[in-house]
Amino acid sequence: MTLKNRIRLSVLTMLLLLLLVGVYSYSVLHGLDRRAQHVQRANLHSVELGRQMLWALSGLTQQPSRPTALQEFRRALTREGANITEPGEAELVDSLTQNLADYQRLLDNQAPLAQRQAELLQLQAQTNRLLTMNLAASGRQGEEAARTVRAAKTTLLVILVLSTVLGASLVLRLPRIVVRPLRRLSADIELATDPATGVALPIERHDEVGNVAQAFNRVLGQMQDLRTASRAELLMQRNRMESIVQGLDEGLLLIDQNRRIILVNPVASELLGQPAEALIGQLAADVARHNEFLQTLLTAEAQAAPHEPAQPPEYTVMRHGQEAYYRLAVQPILSYNELTAQTEFVGHILSLRNITDFKKLDQVKSNFLATVSHELKTPLASINLSLKLLQDERTDTAERQRIAGGIRLETQRLLRMVGELIDVSRLDAGVGIKLNPEPVALALVMDYADDTIMAQLEDKQLELRYALPEDLPAVRADLEKTTWVVINLMANAIRYSPPGEQIHISAEQRGELVQVSVRDCGPGIPAEYHDRIFQRFAHIPNKAGVKGGSGLGLSISREFITSQGGELWVESQPGCGSVFHFTLPVMG
């Protein structure tokens, strides 16, 4: 049964009780009123008429011949005959009527006074009996009314007691009927909204409370779905942020407003020399007592608090067996408090940015400038000396020709170096490499390269040997760029090969590609440097003391070959020389 119906039934029961009391009271009062009217109309009226009859008889006793008294008696008797209500009253009225007729006859016959007085006495006696009869009936009616009133009082008292008990029960039960389910529902809601339980409300009723529970379960299900989605989104965002933080090459250290460490990423943990589990949750000052590097960072943080330093501090640490350079940045963390509508300080982020690559690049550029300065200074000095010898008139013609040849070689060396710098500047500017692809015979490329480096071969007494098959197909390449690559590889082979050795150049077709190889007899290259030598400004340790180039030739060569659809790589071991290979597509 629904709560509405229960409340309605309780109120209806109270109304029925009130209606029952009212109807019963009304019926009792109505019965008493009718009985009173009956007594008044029947018995009391008869008593009044009997009194009038006795009054008339009293007058006849005093004046037997008074006509008005006889008329009053006759009129009252007539009215009494019309108001007969009690058993035996009609016979008594008839007897009075007969006696009145006898008295009237005696009066008409002028009978002796004694006879008339006797008749009057009989009339008085019968009238008294009439009065007594009606008074007794009236008394009986009064007693019956009294008994009825007492019974009604008892019945009403019982009904009132029962109504009071039932009403009190309803007063006590009705709030319980309404409040108890609501309290139970409230307790179930508290249990359901507890994140530790999160169970749905039990549907034990099929009333309004049950409907509310069902509606709450639907809302709870939607909230749980939303919570699950939000939790998944938060977990995804947290995992994403953790992945970003964990994967940074920068060290991150987060210290809250209470000077407690709340975040340490792996890089910062490695730099501090302690695991993150031992740092998170600890006071920074406590950890700094046993950690010199953290003490240094906290000192820098304290200096950065009032004002940002012009130059962030830099630190050199050993990482993976090598020197690493880090620059410290201190950033305050501010959070907007919606309750106070103010921005509050909640901590500092100490960021250790890895600037090792920039430091190394700066060092490489410094080395490059020194190398370029040396490379430029040497040929320029040689050219300057040769020009002075040419100006000397004592120099004979043969010597002048030799000096002019030396100037030409040094000039070509300068042009080659300037060309490398120009190519590098174009690549760095994003201009790209302009190619003119065409069918190219590798034998022609070798002829151009041979003419260019012949003087260098003769100077070091090196022998150049080719192994080019006669049926080698033409390749799709840019003649100028490919010749430049071959010349660069030959120049490197000449630079690192000892005097009197041989340099081998071979080519063979491998499917849709032609592979060209340049083998020297140099000191070889360790495996860990095979990729590094193709980077710009790269230099490797050289125990033989051979002076390297600018560090741009192999980088540019790889760019030229890659842009033509080929590859350039090296195979080498220390003490076994080096073999540089590159491939170019066969002309279709």
Plain-language structure description:
- The protein has 588 residues and is α+β, with helices and mostly antiparallel strands.
- Among the domains are: 247-355, PAS domain (Beta-Lactamase); 361-427, Helix Hairpins (Orthogonal Bundle), CATH 1.10.287.130; 435-585, Histidine kinase-like ATPase, C-terminal domain (Heat Shock Protein 90, 2-Layer Sandwich), CATH 3.30.565.
- Helix content is 61%, strand content 14%.
- The protein has 14 helices and 12 strands.
- The strands form 3 sheets. Strands 2-1-5-4-3 form a 5-stranded antiparallel beta sheet. A 5-stranded mixed beta sheet has the order 7-9-10-12-11.
- Helix 1 (3-62) runs antiparallel to helix 2 (67-81), helix 3 packs antiparallel against helix 4 (113-192) and helix 13 packs antiparallel against helix 14.
- Its EC number is 2.7.13.3.
- Pfam families: HATPase_c (PF02518), HisKA (PF00512), PAS (PF00989).
Would you tell me the structural class of the helices and strands? alpha+beta
Put simply, the count of helices is: 14
CATH topology of one domain: Heat Shock Protein 90
CATH class category of one domain: Alpha Beta
Instruction: Report the CATH architecture of one domain.
Output: 2-Layer Sandwich
Topology order in helix (H) and strand (E) letters: HHHHHEEHHHHEEEHHEHEEHEEHEE
CATH homologous superfamily of one domain - what is it? Histidine kinase-like ATPase, C-terminal domain
Tell me what portion of residues adopts beta-strand conformation: 5-15%
Low-confidence sequence ranges: none
Please give the order of strands in the largest beta sheet. Answer: 2-1-5-4-3
What does the overall shape look like?
rod-shaped
Subcellular location: Membrane
EC number: 2.7.13.3
Keywords: ATP-binding, Kinase, Membrane, Nucleotide-binding, Phosphoprotein, Transferase, Transmembrane, Transmembrane helix, Two-component regulatory system
Main location: membrane
